[in-house]
Specification:
Length: 110
């Protein structure tokens, strides 16, 4: 198993987490989002280790390939990030049910 340095940024940590969960190597992920094959691994590595943070348009491409919503990469709270990830994978009718349930819960708390 390759040895990774700890990502220095939240974005890098979330990107690595999503990439490993998806089982996609860095070089393949880069190619899947349109980066030249010769530099794809290095570019994804720089995103993951925090050397560079991609523009939002690239984050959207990464999210689409990795099957996570773009906000997943930016959530500082681990529980919220997991909620965003799971919510993003639900079909529309389940999303609507969950939003209603959350609305009901927050009305009960007030």
């Amino acid at each position: 198993m390759p040895k990774y340095t700890t990502p220095r940024t939240l974005f890098g940590r979330r990107l690595r987490e999503a990439r490993l969960r998806a089982g996609i190597p860095q070089d393949k992920l880069g190619v899947l989002i349109g980066i030249d094959e010769l530099s794809s691994s290095a570019r994804i590595s720089r995103y993951e280790n925090g050397t560079h943070e991609p523009p939002f348009a690239i984050a959207e491409k990464l999210a689409a390939v990795l099957g996570v919503p773009p906000p997943f990469f930016y959530s500082p709270d681990d529980d919220l990030a997991e909620f965003v990830r799971v919510f993003g994978s639900l079909p529309p009718e389940q999303k609507a049910t969950l939003v209603k349930l959350l609305g009901d819960l927050t009305n009960d708390v007030k």
